[in-house]
């Protein structure tokens, strides 16, 4: 089973309550995480392949984002593969989807790993789609009483380290960046590992137009921002039932989410883009973060910060205090999530 100690360390720090229940002040002492106002961090924790650090800035009492680190068995079988799982779930319109993913996706990963007798891109895709179907079933059961749940969704970025192989799966616009030592120049360079599904990218708009050739308004430039159907920037997510099933495109859903007319096939997809690559001695660490961070830091700037503050995420607080534009940006994206997973020597 998943390491109980690791779960105790990570879950309370990275699964804060969606309402301020008075527990925030105790979170640091209970989990080893430290608290500086809305800044929570843990400088160093252990997973089966090395160490991880984590940090989060929360903007308000309603936290829509969830994250998790799981380390140990990656299947239901004791003899199955061991590894480390990292998940970043950047929610929008509410916390229900990101919370659901944090409660179910890893279990689905373990189930399909057992069925397929090993980790693979197919296992991860099946787990994403199963989590999506389970959440849409929840929406179907509850939406008449809680219609807003049909508009709730979440981006989903997952990293898995297993048997010297790194798997990156992404649905949405979070990003994973590898820090790799370039021996020729003796510098650690940033390597982007994930592909972002955001309508601001021409390739994503082209993909949407190809998938929906009969819809001239599948992407709309609204207030200088490209949006799918004029409503949402991401083209892939878990949840967002109102853009997946036409049955939710009606009352009692709020008018601002309803589309004129109907649609025959899902507008958004839940299937992730997946990268699979072997890890090498030059691969130093991976940064997982939601889009709010990448709007204000380049890949290389983020890698340089990790190199400046290895295993000492708390010192980033001082760095951000002297870069007000970064601190302001982080605070106002509701929750910018950063995981630093040290993966030295994972090629063995």
TrEMBL record:
<keyword id="KW-0378">Hydrolase</keyword>
<dbReference type="GO" id="GO:0046872">
    <property type="term" value="F:metal ion binding"/>
</dbReference>
<keyword id="KW-0460">Magnesium</keyword>
<feature type="domain" description="PPM-type phosphatase">
    <location>
        <begin position="51"/>
        <end position="348"/>
    </location>
</feature>
<dbReference type="InterPro" id="IPR036457">
    <property type="entry name" value="PPM-type-like_dom_sf"/>
</dbReference>
<dbReference type="InterPro" id="IPR015655">
    <property type="entry name" value="PP2C"/>
</dbReference>
<keyword id="KW-0479">Metal-binding</keyword>
<comment type="similarity">
    <text>Belongs to the PP2C family.</text>
</comment>
<dbReference type="InterPro" id="IPR001932">
    <property type="entry name" value="PPM-type_phosphatase-like_dom"/>
</dbReference>
<keyword id="KW-0464">Manganese</keyword>
<dbReference type="Pfam" id="PF00481">
    <property type="entry name" value="PP2C"/>
</dbReference>
<protein>
    <recommendedName>
        <fullName>protein-serine/threonine phosphatase</fullName>
        <ecNumber>3.1.3.16</ecNumber>
    </recommendedName>
</protein>
<dbReference type="GO" id="GO:0004722">
    <property type="term" value="F:protein serine/threonine phosphatase activity"/>
</dbReference>
<keyword id="KW-0904">Protein phosphatase</keyword>
<dbReference type="InterPro" id="IPR000222">
    <property type="entry name" value="PP2C_BS"/>
</dbReference>
